[in-house]
Amino acid sequence: MIGNRITHRTADGVRVPGTWRHAFICNGGSYFLTDLFIYADGLVDCWELVTLDEFEQKLRRGWVATSLPDGGRASAHHLASWTFGEPRTWLTADLLLAEVRDTVDELNGRPDSTARCLAAVDVFMADRTEDNRAAARAAYLAIPETVRHYALGDMDRKDYPLRVLVAGPGGRTPDEPGEAVTQEEYDEAVAYFEDRERWIAKAPSRVPADGPAESFAPAVKIYHSYPQRALEDPGKQALRNDYPAPITVDDATYPSVAHAYWALSVAEPEARTAVLAAESGGKARTAAVAAPRREGWEQVRTAVMARLLRAKYEQHPDLAAILLATGDATVLYDDADSGFWGENGGRGRNWTGRLLELVRSELLAGQTLID
Question: What pTM does this model have?
Answer without folding.
Answer: 0.59
